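FIELD: query
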Amino acid sequence: MITFNTHYFLSTVTFPLKHYRIPYSAIKLPNGNIASLGFGLTSGRFALYDSTGQFIIEVGEIPPGKMKNTPVPVHLVAFQGKTRKCPNNSKIIISSRFSDMIEVYKLDGSLIKRFWGPIEKLPVYETVKIGDKAVMALDDKNSILGYIDIYVTNRKIYALYSGRTRPDYAQKAPYGNTIHVFDFEGNILRIYKTDEDLFAISATGNDSLLFGIQHYDKIQIVVYKL
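FIELD: result
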C-alpha cells in the first residue's frame, strides 16, 4: 500500500510516505530497457529496469546539496523533475522542478555534464518525520519552481523556466513564460519569452516551431515560430 501526504497532494506537490522504488518520468532505451526517476531510490539519480519493469540497478550521481543527515530518498524528492532522451539515443537529460539545474547523462548512467540556469539555486527543504518515516517538506517561502518541463532535440535543450515562488504567484507558480535554450555543454543559446504562462513544451525536430500547453486562465495549445 502507498500512502500520500494529503496537504501536499492537494497542492500538487506529492510524495509517498511509504514506497518501494516508485518510478516516474520513464523513458525507453534502445536496448529495450527503461530509465526512470523514482521515489525510494537510495544510491543513484535514476534507475534502470528491464522491458518487463523489473529493477536492474540505480545509476547516476546524487544531486549536490545533500546534508549529512538527510536520507538520499528525501533529497531525491526535492530534486524531482523530468527525464528526456535525445532522438538519436545518445543522451538522457534530467531537469529539476525546484531548482534551475539540468543534468546530461550517457545511457549507462555516467554523468556527462551538470549545469545551471540563471540563479543556480538548490531546492530549499527540510526533512521532517511523519511517524517513523522521513519525508521532504518544501520551504515554499524560499524555494522556487525551476525547470518545469524540457524538450530535447539532437542539438538543443529547450527548458521551460518558472523562477516563481508560491507566496508571490500562488496558483501561477507552477507555470512559466521563459524558455532557455542550451547546448549540451550548458551554454545558453537563446532565451524566449512567451505571452502565455505554459506548463509543458515541445518543438519540431528542425527547430522551426515551438509548441506550448497553456492550462491556467485558458486551456489551449499555442504554436510559436522560432
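FIELD: remark
The longest strand covers residues 188-203.
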